[in-house]
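Section 4.2 – Deliverable D4.2 (structural model, holo form)

The reporting period included a commitment to supply a predicted holo structure for the target in complex with nicotinamide-adenine-dinucleotide. Inputs used:
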Amino acid sequence: MTVLVDPSNAEVIGSVADAGEEETAAAIGRAAAAWPAWAAVAPADRARLLRRFAETVDAHLEELAGIEVRNAGHTIGNARWEAGNVRDVLHYYSATPERLAGRQIPVPGGVDITFHEPLGVVGVIVPWNFPLPIAGWGLAPALAAGNTVVLKPAAWTPLSALRLGELALEAGLPRGVIEAVAGAGPVAGWRLVTDHRVAKVCFTGSAEVGKKVMAGCAEQVKRVTLELGGKSANVVFSDADLERAAAAAPMAVFDNAGQDCCARSRLLVHKPVLERFMALLERAVTSVVVGDPRDEATQMGPLITEAHRRRVEGYLGDGTPVAFRGQAPEGPGWWMAPTVLGPVAPSDRVAQEEIFGPVVAVIPFDDEADAVAIANGSRFGLSGSIWTENVGRALRVARGIEAGNLSVNSHSSVRYWTPFGGFKQSGLGRELGPDAPEAFTETKNVFISTEGTR
Ligand code: NAD
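Output (structure tokens):
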């Protein structure tokens, strides 16, 4: 049993029974049994069911957002966006069943056509930092392509996934098409990796666990998508609109209390403007509103657990150069003030490891080549931002940085219309965007001879 705690006040909000090996195997069995009928649903009907699921999520948006505020400490503004994202992603992929067309390829002697065949049961393993959207990014395209799904939320944040499973039934999806299983990663999650009835694992989480999942999937040559950690760079050039860049920098890393795989946790600043930028940044950081996640004005809530806060604070030991900090409430809850470190060398531990909390490392750079080299001096490559008014430089640097999701003069990372995923140890494969459903299919080629006896 896992006891669930509200991170903003340390109060127990409930508990959830952990699914063991047996319960997880039974859920996989139900998803496997439901698959043939789901794959055979006519495209327009599958589309209609997904749209109905989207509408049902929308009708429960406040409830789902409230769960995330209580269970994960997310600000109410973010939590509403997250529930709305599930709705939008379901709507977006509800267009897939009627458009998942193969190709007709010119060949001699006959006709050649390809089909996108569903895989079967897909295991979607979700981390605690964005329980709702990440569940949606896996399950919507998987269902649209004709697969059934076993959804495994993180042990600390299971409530929204369990509720999504209920809402799917309410929307009319057949039983077994989505099975939500709350349980420990090494038990319930690992079962999804090792069970032969699961055709693909769609994993989001830490690089360390992701590597184990990948190795486990290799045993069965199981399909796997990995969305892992990040240490993304926010690169500010002297020719940028410095006011805008400084105003935007705090929430590019402190959003969700820094517990964001796309957090721009390395802030690379061009040396000629370092002093001016730091003054602007201090003003922006000290005005970040940290507090009760239920308050609409709050910008940053607490960290997820006491243990995680301890881990994050462990990075602020003796010798760590703290430039300045913002505010945080006192009292119960896992609060931590936004913290700016600097100047930091690119090889320092705080500039290399994913801290996953409200801590940003400021790293000064000399020129464009230096900025790109520092940005790329990481085992990760998930996101990043480039602030400059020079369009040529923006494109050169964007092409030079080894990361899957870059934005110029903004901090946008995840937009469901566009592909999302990481270079290097930030992951394998892409989610979202127009091509995501194909990652939940096998391409089958069929050749039909037109030659023969007349
Ligand atoms: P985690 O790796 O500890 O856990 C992720 C999920 O895997 C959880 O559901 C967990 O129960 C499960 N799990 C744990 N051990 C397992 C095992 N042996 N077999 C199968 N499943 C197992 O990660 P976390 O602490 O929940 O999340 C934080 C991490 O997720 C950060 O590194 C963050 O960068 C990353 N993340 C990446 C993205 C992305 O899209 N790239 C998005 C969000 C979070």
